[in-house]
Specification:
The chain is an alpha/beta fold and 296 residues long. It has a six-stranded parallel sheet. The chain has a three-stranded parallel sheet with strand order 3-2-4, with helices on both faces. Helix 1 packs parallel to helix 10 and helix 6 crosses helix 10. It starts with a strand and ends with a helix. The structure holds NADPH dihydro-nicotinamide-adenine-dinucleotide phosphate. NADPH dihydro-nicotinamide-adenine-dinucleotide phosphate binds next to helix 10.
Length: 296
């Protein structure tokens, strides 16, 4: 393997240490404890695991955490009522509604019901608009902001770079492209967004100094799609069957790891990089929400 591995766990820990220090300062100097409410509807095991790790991280970093578990049959009206209550709770500075939500729930309406100043997931239309405008008072979604931090903190030169983002979802691809193309320090990249209707994908990908892959197709990005020395960030998490392991499946990314690693300059392994970064950015966004609420 030629590529240097980007150590996402170490970078996430660096961000967590900064957050914990600032939380401790807020408590000591302002008697303020940032609080995060996480709402989980139903009993999807993957969602339960995510929510548990968010809870644990809040405790580790000194944040107040509130868990709201609702049955799978919760109605739209009931969920909106609960969000409205959380919008008014003074000890809660950030609200996260774990997706996916059951079919009877209109996800867009739920995200739009969260007070934008508590929208630490960055999915409220006001925060999407602020991100597009480059307004720093908004909240950038956690996974895309995590990708940006990974690049900055692993010493990748983003300014002026040719970046190809594979995927244009609301959660990952689109916001990553907005963040990296911003007229700002550590951004200013020339960004191409590719998707399932893009033609000449191999040529587009080979033009990239930095490739961010978020399409949800296991091992999609092949070595011939990567320019030698390019930086490859793999956001994908896919389950593939594997009878040789006890669980019966393995988690793999959207990148065909070994051959691409032989070609790339730097690369993120899956799992263990983007996941911890997402949680670290959620904690940091909650801290930011608490500080903004109190004018600090
Ligand atoms: P979506 O399914 O919402 O979006 C996928 C995007 O990829 C779409 O824009 C789609 O194009 C594009 N796409 C799909 N197939 C192809 C193809 N063959 N060629 C080119 N483009 C294609 O996925 P998400 O953005 O939500 O997630 C992407 C991956 O990231 C998933 O593996 C997910 O599990 C992972 N993820 C990881 C997170 C983490 O914390 N680590 C957080 C969020 C996601 P089109 O728009 O044309 O349909």
């Amino acid at each position: 393997m030629a590529a240097e591995l980007i150590d996402g766990k170490a970078i996430a820990e660096q961000i967590n240490a900064e957050t914990a220090a600032e939380v401790a300062r807020l408590k000591a100097e302002h008697q303020l404890t940032p609080g995060l409410a996480v709402v989980l509807v139903g009993d999807n095991p993957a969602s339960q695991a995510y929510v548990a790790s968010k809870d644990k991280m809040c405790t580790r970093l000194g944040l107040h955490s509130k868990r709201v578990n609702l049955p799978a049959g919760t109605s739209q009206g009931e969920l909106l009522g609960i969000i409205n209550d959380l919008n008014f709770q003074r000890t809660i500075h950030g609200i996260l509604v774990q997706s996916p939500l059951p079919n009877q729930i209109d996800e867009a309406q739920v995200f739009a019901a969260i007070d934008p100043s508590k929208d630490v997931d960055g999915f409220h239309p006001l925060n999407v608009g602020k991100l597009a405008l480059g307004d720093p008072t908004g909240f950038a979604p956690c996974t895309p902001a995590g990708v940006h931090e990974l690049l900055i903190r692993s010493g990748v030169a983003v300014e002026g770079a040719n970046v190809v983002v594979l995927g244009r979802s609301r959660i990952v691809g689109r916001p990553v492209s907005l963040i990296l193309s911003q007229k700002a320090k550590n951004a200013n990249a020339t960004v191409t967004v590719a998707h399932s209707r893009s033609r000449n994908l191999t040529a587009i990908c080979r033009s990239a100094d930095i490739l961010v892959v978020a399409i949800g197709v296991a091992r999609f990005l092949k070595a011939e799609m990567v320019r030698p020395g390019a930086v490859v960030i793999d956001v994908g998490i896919n389950r593939v069957e594997d009878s040789t392991v006890a669980k019966g499946y393995r988690l793999v990314g959207d990148v065909d790891f070994e051959p691409v690693a032989a070609m790339a300059g730097k690369i993120t392994p899956v799992p263990g990089v983007v996941g911890p970064m997402t949680i670290a950015l959620l904690m940091r966004n909650t801290l930011k929400a608490a500080k903004m609420r109190h004018g600090l």
